[in-house]
Amino acid sequence: MAQTPAFSDGLVWFKESLSALRRQPVALPGIVIFSTLVSGLLSGFPFIGAILASCWMPFGAVLTGYAARDTLEGRVPTYQMLPQIFRDAPSRWPLLGIGLLSSLWFEVEMVIFDYLGADAIAAWKITEKGIDFESVMANLPVTAFVTTVILYVPLLMMTVFAPLLVADKRQALGKSLFYSFFGVLRNLPPVVVFVVLLFGLTAGSGLILEALFAAIGLPNALPYVAPLLIAVLTTVAQAGIWVMYRDLFNQVRRGSV
């Protein structure tokens, strides 16, 4: 690991992620959107869609991570790296392993959610207009939701850096999951700062746009620009993953943007 974690590192990561978006406002979001669209298209396949999307996830993470790397190093990110990622035999199977593990973990979570939330969901009322919102609010599957979130956090910690550790560091599947998990755990304070700042940017952007549209007489315009806003925020998040990975696992001294 690079250095003793400090809360200020989260702010540095956040600023550098914004810098990546500023340097490549078209090419970098384009690659991030491409990765997201591929995941969505694969998930639409009957029966095996969830597995296919999960298997794509590690490859997409490497693609967006390298795109952020190239951007911050002064190069224009391109899609030419994608075939190279798939042709890289030493990392191909560990990356698929990360995807399959994620898929299995999600399936187990869904079974647990269905089991814990069955009674609450059964109390939801369906009318001619659709699901009755009041019945949903009165019977929220809180226990099921909280349990699945708690179970999801370890998976996120294990897989957030694992694809890059496999492709960039040539780590084996188990080792990459281990180092990713404890890399997050050991640097939890700045990671939390980065996540909080990202959520703050998300909420703040939405509120500002909503107020702006209301002021100019377009109170219902936010849904039309929401995809663009999501693309921007997702790009910042993906760039942040690379910046954190670089600093935590490559012995790079952190600095300010």
Mean pLDDT: 92
List low-confidence stretches: 252-257
Rounded radius of gyration (Å): 20 Å
Instruction: Determine the number of helices (DSSP H or I, runs of at least 4 residues).
Output: 11
Helical content stands at: over 70%
Number of strands: 2
Q: What does the main sheet amount to? A: 2 strands, antiparallel
What class would the helix/strand composition place it in?
Answer: mainly alpha
Distance between the termini: 21 Å
- Strand share of the residues? under 5%
The count of domains is 1
Tell me, what's the shape? Answer: globular
Order of SSEs, N→C? HHHHHEEHHHHHH
Strand order of the largest sheet: 1-2
Keywords: Membrane, Transmembrane, Transmembrane helix
Transmembrane segments: 25-42, 142-167, 188-218, 224-245
Protein name: Transmembrane protein
InterPro entries: BPSS1780-like
Please tell me about this protein's structure:
- This protein has 257 residues and is mainly α.
- The chain has one domain (7-249).
- The protein contains eleven helices and two strands.
- β1 (126-127) and β2 (130-131) form a beta hairpin.
- The longest helix is centred in the middle third of the chain and has 34 residues, at 89-122.
- Keywords: Membrane, Transmembrane, Transmembrane helix.
- This is Transmembrane protein.
